[in-house]
Design goal:
This protein is mainly beta. It has a single domain, classed as Sulfite Oxidase, Chain A, domain 2. It has four helices and eleven strands; from the N terminus they run H-E-E-E-H-E-E-H-E-E-H-E-E-E-E. The radius of gyration is 16 Å and the shape is globular. The structure holds the ligand Nc1nc2c(c(=O)[nH]1)N[C@H]1C(S)=C(S)[C@@H](COP(=O)(O)O)O[C@H]1N2 and molybdenum atom.
């Protein structure tokens, strides 16, 4: 099996275009109105401005992107701040096991903490060398390459660290609670113990 095939999860088709997908209107978020709030089970809750966020150490990473509507886009170069860096700044309390990621459009999606601590998870302001466009989540979006793209919240406004899990917007509407593309975890009826 060649590399591209190995990197394409079952049921997915590769695209070199970049489709735009979101539920509501694109919210207007400027560098002035931007805030990044971290709350819940952390030692040092924060409410960072754009300037404060951009002062955090950043890096670049290349990764793949898989949407549950069956398109995958490989080799995206993102630049931003790793989730781990944010986690170190706020200090995660030992009881925290889940994170609700919030967006300025009112979107929310839940991710188990251990998936976010992966080295390829970041808050990005740039894609393939260009500033992230508002339609793709600019000024800042989350990128979680190893889960379906609905977990990669655009226009991210904050993180809520939680002891017990709560389902996000799509997770409440029939999509899988975890959403791992290579296991094709698309729908909630596939979850262990689901009897619906
Ligand atoms: N805030 C927010 N983030 C979101 C969404 C949304 O509706 N609101 N849609 C998700 C879905 S379903 C997908 S497939 C990706 C699409 O990202 P793109 O439009 O940059 O391709 O964003 C995800 N992040
Ligand atoms: Mo999606």
């Amino acid at each position: 099996m060649d590399d591209l095939k190995k990197r394409t999860p079952p049921g997915q088709t590769l695209t070199t275009k970049w489709p735009v997908l979101h539920y509501s209107d694109v919210p207007r978020v400027t560098e002035e109105s931007f805030r990044f709030k971290v709350f819940g089970l952390v030692e040092r809750p924060c409410d960072w401005t754009w300037k404060e966020f951009r002062a955090l150490p950043s890096f670049q990473d290349k990764s793949d992107f898989h949407c549950v509507t069956t398109w995958s886009k490989l080799d995206n170069t993102w630049e931003g701040v790793s989730f781990k860096t944010v986690a170190e700044r706020v200090g995660i309390k030992p009881a925290a096991r889940f994170v609700m990621v919030h967006g300025f459009d009112g979107y929310y999606t839940n991710v188990e903490l251990e998936w976010l601590l992966d080295a390829d998870v970041l808050f990005a302001w740039s894609h393939d060398g260009k500033a992230l466009e508002p339609i793709h989540g600019g000024p800042l979006r989350l990128v979680v390459p190893k889960l379906y793209a609905w977990k990669s919240a655009k226009w991210v406004s904050g993180l809520e660290f939680m002891e017990t899990d709560r389902r996000g917007f799509w997770e409440e509407r029939g999509y899988h609670n975890r959403g791992e593309p290579f296991a094709e975890e698309r729908y909630s009826y596939q979850e262990p113990g689901d009897v619906s």
